[in-house]
Amino acid sequence: MSNIIRRRFRDRRIEGFSLIETLVGVALVAIAMLGLAQLLVLSIAQNTRADRMSNAVFLARQQIEELRLLTQDELNALTGAAMDESLDINQDGMFDYRRITTLQPSGVFYQARVLIFAAETFGESMGDLLTDPTAYRVRADITSLISR
Fold first, then answer.
1. What is the pTM of this model?
2. Rounded CA separation 106/65 (Å)
3. What whole-number distance in Å separates Cα of residue 21 and Cα of residue 77?
């Protein structure tokens, strides 16, 4: 009887995974997960950048629309000097954007230019920002003609 039991254990194949096979499998899954995590981080960064650009364009277009509602006398009063505003769009007590608006008469038209900068430019002078906006990473630069 004992010979029969011994023969059964000897003939039975050992099934399952070895330790090395398991480690290789875990390593492959970990590498795949790292790639997905990196993709997730990149996706979040791009989404945040797109959100900031969208907000900046909205703020610039909003200013242009407000200027279009003004009368000719009001537009004449605003020409010459640039308007510099600090904007807190989410009302958390911290400024998010800086909006600079210039309005120049051009015959029967007024040329309106609106520049939107990130909050990091609050320490810079308005003249520097108007001279070279790309050096300060302008978020939106919209120019429009207004007729009266």
1. 0.76
2. 18
3. 79
